[in-house]
Specification:
It is a single chain. The chain is α+β, with helices and mostly antiparallel strands. The protein has one domain: Cytochrome P450 (Cytochrome p450). The chain has helices at residues 13-22, 24-35, 55-62, 79-82, 92-102, 108-111, 115-126, 137-153, 159-177, 183-186, 199-223, 232-238, 249-280, 282-294, 301-305, 308-320, 353-356, 373-376, 397-412; strands at 38-43, 47-52, 69-70, 135-136, 330-332, 336-338, 341-343, 348-351, 415-419, 428-430, 433-435, 441-446. It has a five-stranded mixed sheet. The longest helix is centred in the middle third of the chain and has 32 residues, at 249-280. The mean pLDDT is 93. The chain binds protoporphyrin IX containing FE. Protoporphyrin IX containing FE is lined by residues 87-88, 99, 153, 258-259, 262-263, 266-267, 270, 318, 323-324, 327-328, 386-390, 392-396, 399-400. Protoporphyrin IX containing FE binds next to helix 13 and helix 19.
Length: 448
């Protein structure tokens, strides 16, 4: 049996980790050019990770039986923020139980009930923009997606609590997501509380403030449970597992923070890229506007979510710069032969979303933004993998796609967006994701 890991760079593992943190796209592209579909990066304390970008390999990974791998175990670096019972960190039966409790509230039909809410929030945020005056796009769209989560998922109505959470959450996420401070997640030795001014000390204090607010919300809602409310926390409070048990307060807190962490910046980054590509490609923007304007009723959520060109623009946005460069690495619990290659127990296999989406055999001219490719061909779930796959596939996929479409339709029927600078914008690391740079700005102008 061949137990040798696929080839990869020979630099010191610490240097490879620094490159993975500092220039994720560059290192993936360099390695794909040099080693092909399968290569190993040695990521400091994380150890060797095998990056895979062949659709057949992805199919074999995504369809592994749940008992033959761990995925939560590879996400432990997020534990300080998400908590011990976060869905993202769990494996095996505990993951399956928690997922069964959380899947129904995120069903496609349900997420469409937030349509009016999303439009109201988008209009309220965009009302602050002035024609001709540039605005920084990612922060504006993060403001929209944060409010969608606070209202649709958390269901917060108390104005003071809403205000404090909307101030506190972005700061807390920034602590674990900006390129420099996210190193703290990768290097547990830096996680030292040296008082309120030290980075980790501040993180811990803000986290306890967050916990206090969330536990207050959970206690009040549990004491006066209103089954008529449509937010996701209400559904989580009512959910029961196979033994009839509800989620504990700690589980509810951890899942709320998980949904926020997993759903807030990811959706905002995707929407920011969509506006970027539309501003770069006026012909595509014009064609999309024509589709939106010819739609009988944009307020009908079902009609909106089925518009073909809008769907193709969203898919192409998520293809060309996927928000997550890799899906969660799967850690084998037993030796496995995948695509003829045997991997030992303990191997980390990372389905590489970015490189799969840049294969020229699947996506000719992969660096060109071309929504038409999604109209002329249907991609399998192992070729278009922006939301991962198998039993760990993104829980919020329907909400994210619907929110993207609803926000874009609202903005694009109101404004046209112009670039300030024609140089290409490239993704930068935000925690475990890839995002448009924070300073990227667009100028909203009148439609005609
Ligand atoms: C465009 C936006 C989004 C993208 C691109 C995205 C992408 C992903 C990816 C790649 C994974 C890992 C899947 C795997 O390893 O197979 C994931 C997992 C997850 N996502 Fe998303 N996501 C987005 C939005 C959201 C939203 C809005 C939510 C919820 C509010 C959410 C909640 C989750 C959760 C809870 C998981 C973990 C699932 C599990 O471990 O079982 N995501 N997402």
């Amino acid at each position: 049996m061949n137990h040798v890991l696929p080839s990869g760079p020979q630099a010191h593992p610490f240097l490879q980790l620094l490159q993975w943190i500092g220039r994720p796209v560059g290192i993936m592209e360099d390695c794909a050019r040099r080693y092909g579909d399968l290569f190993t990066l040695r990521l400091g304390p994380i150890g060797p990770v095998v990056f895979c970008s062949h659709p057949q390999m992805l199919q074999e990974i995504f369809t592994l039986e749940a008992h033959s791998f761990y995925a939560g175990a590879g996400n432990q670096l997020l534990r300080p923020l998400l908590g011990d019972t976060s869905l993202i960190l769990l494996d095996g039966d505990r993951h399956q139980r928690q997922r069964q409790l959380l899947v129904p509230p995120f069903h496609g039909e349900r997420t469409r009930t937030y349509s009016n809410l999303i439009v109201e929030i988008t209009q309220q945020v965009s009302a602050g923009w002035q024609l001709g005056q540039p605005f920084t796009v990612r922060s504006a769209l993060q403001n929209i997606s944060l409010q969608v989560i606070l209202q649709a998922v958390f269901g917060i109505t108390d104005p003071q609590r809403y205000h404090t959470l909307s101030q506190l959450l972005p700061t807390l996420i920034d602590r674990v997501s900006s390129p420099l401070s996210s190193s703290i997640l990768f290097l547990p030795s830096l996680q030292q509380d040296w008082g309120a001014w030290s980075p980790w000390g501040q993180f811990i204090r803000q986290r306890s403030q967050l916990n206090q607010l969330l536990y207050q919300e959970i206690a009040e809602r549990r004491a006066d449970l209103d089954p008529e409310r449509s937010d996701i926390l209400t559904l989580m409070l009512m959910a029961r597992d196979e033994e009839g048990q509800p989620m504990t307060d700690v589980e509810l807190r951890d899942e709320l923070v998980t949904l926020l962490m997993a759903g807030h910046e990811t959706t905002a980054s995707a929407m920011t890229w969509a506006l970027y590509w539309l501003a770069r490609s006026p012909a595509i923007a014009t064609r999309l506007l024509a589709e939106l304007e010819s739609c009988d009723d944009l307020n009908d959520a079902k009609t909106l979510s089925r518009l073909p060109y809008l769907s193709a623009v969203c898919s192409e946005t998520l293809r060309i710069y996927p928000v997550a460069p890799i899906a969660f690495p799967r850690i084998l619990l037993e030796p496995r032969t995948l695509m003829g290659q045997t991997f030992e127990r303990g191997t980390y296999l990372a389905p590489c979303i970015y490189l799969t989406h840049h294969r020229s055999d699947l996506y000719p001219n992969p660096d060109v933004f071309d929504p038409d490719r999604f109209l002329s061909r249907t991609y399998s779930p192992y070729e278009f993998v922006g939301f991962g796959g198998g039993n760990r596939r993104c829980l919020g996929m329907s909400l994210a796609l619907f929110e993207m479409k609803r926000v874009l339709a609202t903005l694009l029927t109101q404004f046209r967006f112009e670039l300030l600078d024609t140089r290409p914008v490239r993704p930068v690391r935000r925690g475990v994701t890839l995002a448009p740079p924070a300073q990227f700005a667009l100028r909203p102008v009148a439609l005609r």
